[in-house]
């Protein structure tokens, strides 16, 4: 259910961008991501940029012994990951590593701990670990447009998204992508959106209720 995921990302990104606007700037660092381009398709446009919705496969290795700690091809039925680029849905190093990349391009990147899981580590990743990722970018799409997108959905401008407003938005999105769908999908997605986002259960989604972002998610 790509559209479902796209929409949820869209909701997440709204809150992220909003919090950035409120001044949570990323700290600067002296360490860089080392990027090695391992494959470039003959046609290499357009390039990914901050705010795009990207679809990628990536395998992660610990640099010190090259053990694989993550593989998008074997997790979750091997579906490539969808995420909004450059807004902190993945570790900082990956947000940087996937910039300016075209569909079909492959990269091998080395990410210092300061742009990954730092001196705390996370799960299988030990403290101060340099990470290596092999990335393949499969798709680039129009990303969410944060405040503008919220306002676009919020037809009556009351800063709350009602079921009708989101339903209307879904109808438009489905019409745009032109794929045939069982009509029940619409209802299921709508239900899912409200279950996951309408935390106070008042039947409206407030800007605050979009805040479902998990910091350390790969
Ligand atoms: C590589 O290092 C990690 C963490 O230091 C360790 O958990 C893992 O067992 C090591 N893998 C191999 C194949 O040595
Ligand atoms: C991680 O690196 C920091 C800064 O270099 C150091 O202070 C800390 O002791 C290191 N932690 C571990 C577990 O190696
Ligand atoms: Ca509204
Ligand atoms: Ca609510």
The CATH topology of the domain at 28-141 corresponds to Chitinase A, domain 3
CATH architectural type of the domain at 28-141 = Roll
- The CA-CA distance between the termini, in Å, is 20 Å
What is the beta-strand fraction?
15-25%
By DSSP, the count of extended strands is: 8
Uncertain segments: 1-29, 211-218
- Cα-based radius of gyration, to the nearest Å: 18 Å
How would you sum up this structure, described in words?
- Its EC number is 5.2.1.8.
- Residues 148-176, 185-218 form the EF-hand domain.
- The strands form two sheets. Strands 1, 2, 3, 4, 5 and 6 form a six-stranded antiparallel beta sheet that branches.
- The model is unreliable at 1-29 and 211-218 (pLDDT under 50).
- With 218 residues, this protein is an alpha+beta fold.
- The protein has five helices and eight strands, in the order H-E-E-E-E-H-E-E-H-E-H-H-E.
- Helix 1 (2-21) crosses helix 3 and helix 4 crosses helix 5 (183-197).
- It binds 2-acetamido-2-deoxy-beta-D-glucopyranose (2 copies) and calcium ion (2 copies).
- One calcium ion binds next to strand 8.
């Amino acid at each position: 259910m790509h559209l479902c995921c796209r929409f949820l990302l869209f909701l997440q990104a709204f809150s992220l961008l909003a919090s950035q606007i409120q001044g949570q700037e990323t700290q600067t660092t002296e360490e860089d991501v080392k990027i090695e381009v391992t494959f470039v398709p003959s046609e290499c446009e357009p390039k990914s940029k901050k705010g795009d919705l990207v679809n990628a496969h990536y395998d992660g290795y610990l640099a010190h012994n090259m053990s694989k700690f993550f593989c998008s091809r074997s997790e979750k039925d091997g579906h490539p990951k969808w995420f909004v680029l450059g807004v902190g849905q993945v570790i900082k190093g990956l947000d940087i590593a996937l910039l300016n990349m075209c569909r079909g391009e492959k990269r091998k990147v080395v990410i210092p701990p300061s742009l990954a899981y730092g001196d705390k580590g996370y799960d299988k990743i030990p403290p101060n670990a340099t990470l290596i990722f092999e990335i393949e970018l499969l798709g680039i799409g129009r990303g969410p447009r944060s405040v503008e997108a919220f306002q676009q959905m919020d037809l009556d401008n009351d800063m709350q998204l009602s079921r009708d407003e989101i339903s209307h938005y879904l109808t438009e999105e489905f019409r745009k992508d032109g794929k045939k769908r069982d009509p029940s999908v619409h209802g299921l997605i709508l239900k899912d959106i409200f279950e996951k986002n309408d935390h106070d259960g008042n039947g409206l989604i407030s800007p605050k209720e979009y805040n479902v972002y998990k910091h350390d998610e790969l």
